[in-house]
Amino acid sequence: EEQDTIQKSSVMLDLHSSRMPFSNTWKYGILALAILFLLVALIILTCQVCQLQKCNRTRKKKRCHSRGWIRMKAVNGIWGKKMPPLLHDATKQSNADIKASTLMLGRTEDFSSTSSDLGLLPRSRGTLKFSLLYCRERCELLLTGLEAWGLPSRGCTESAVRVRLLRHIPSHIPGLQCMVQEWKSQVVKNCCRPAFGDHFVFSLQDAEVEKSTLKLEVQRFDKYSRNAVLGEVRVTLSELKASQSLVLCKELQKTTKDIVGEVLVSLKCLPISQRIEVGLLKAKTTSPRSTAEKNVYARIDVSCRHHREKHQKSRPRAHTPLIIFNETFLFHMPEPPAWDCTVLISIYEVDSNSRHLIGQATLGKRRASEAADHWGLMIKSIQQPVAKWHPLLV
To answer: Which InterPro entries does the record associate with it (predicted)?
Structure first.
């Protein structure tokens, strides 16, 4: 039995020893195959990265070459050779003729330096078409046929036109005007060429025609109910002839504000309590648009670091050419080194049914020169009120 056991164990050892080299061969073969696959994958990845870098370099060269070719054509001519002085002068003259003809077509917008060098036209804000008729017998100005096209498209939007009739007033304030009447057209939704289909009638005497200007603003409303002014068109009514209909088609220009009065505001810095005192003293406005007695009030908004404080309102006052408020309002402010705030003063005329904006004045560190000077004087004169007149704009 012992011999049988020894023989069986020897047989088992022989079988085990015969299997060991076979399994090691498989293991090393699989390992070598995995290393080979890894090397192939790394080679493919390296080739792809090199090809991508080569494509990027080619695109950059093409872009630089195209820009240089456009610049070379604009300066030296089509064939890349420098033009003679006579031809160069003729080219300049032809460009001037193109600009003059563009102005005759109603494109009064200034050309930028880049577009003038390359001979490109500026981007249009859109075009507004309307007709005007002044009836001297009825002393009325009729505005009809409002239509716009070429407006910048930004998805589903709503468009409208605000019409204002302004009249120049002689005053010590340069450019002072009064708003005679204001209208707003109906809102047109989701239309690339809106036709508003409204007609407006303005009561206007002959003596007032020479001093009046018609201002039309095209506004756009998006789905968040934000009001954006796309551009404006101004028409001096002195160009109109009585009893003759005038059809105008003008491109929209950049909107500008009009001075309709001025307001006397005092500012006082209170760094210990981290507050600012806004004093609303007086306001000079034009005469009311109607003979009925109306009241006005002022609203003060203060925003700092993109955070708006709760607004405050003044008591209602009678609408006269000189409105006396004599009220002060306190607003919380951050630490003095971080004072980068804006104060907005809006004066409204209230009626039984609605309110009407008379004008607004904005004060702050980053505003116009006068407003910035007033803000700087306030910071220097701690706990001392500093008063200054500011124009009311609309």
So the answer is: C2_dom (IPR000008), C2_domain_sf (IPR035892)
